[in-house]
């Protein structure tokens, strides 16, 4: 019996989990900074924070299902993780393009996260294809 789980995917999931903690804290700090320094409209602060916290809530099952699906060589959890990645990408794009104030640091953090999501998605599709065949 051959091992079909993907080591690069497993490493990327691990690194992405660590990066996301940094991303969350940095983005939260920047939202707080922007609300203090700029004239941040009160009715727009809550949606920006809600998107960040919703993204954090999505990240936990996304990573768990990715780890589980890859290690058990099961396509269903990996597919669910891939679906949750799509939701995370949409929220990341919101924070990149449509939040109230976008700083260069926001662009850098979100571009790096989107790149990781893209690479991770490609590896997930490849792993699912290996598991099915």
From TrEMBL:
A Pfam family the protein falls into: Transmemb_17
Compartments (UniProt record): Cell projection, Cilium; Membrane
InterPro entries, per the entry: Uncharacterised_TM-17
GO BP, sorted A to Z: non-motile cilium assembly
GO cellular component terms, semicolon-separated: ciliary transition zone; membrane
Keywords assigned by UniProt, alphabetized: Cell projection, Membrane, Transmembrane, Transmembrane helix
Species the sequence originates in: Polioptila caerulea (Blue-grey gnatcatcher)
Residue spans crossing the bilayer: 12-33, 45-65, 77-96
Name used for this protein in its record: TMM80 protein
Major localization class: other
Membrane topology of this protein: Multi-pass membrane protein
UniProt KW rRNA-binding keyword: no
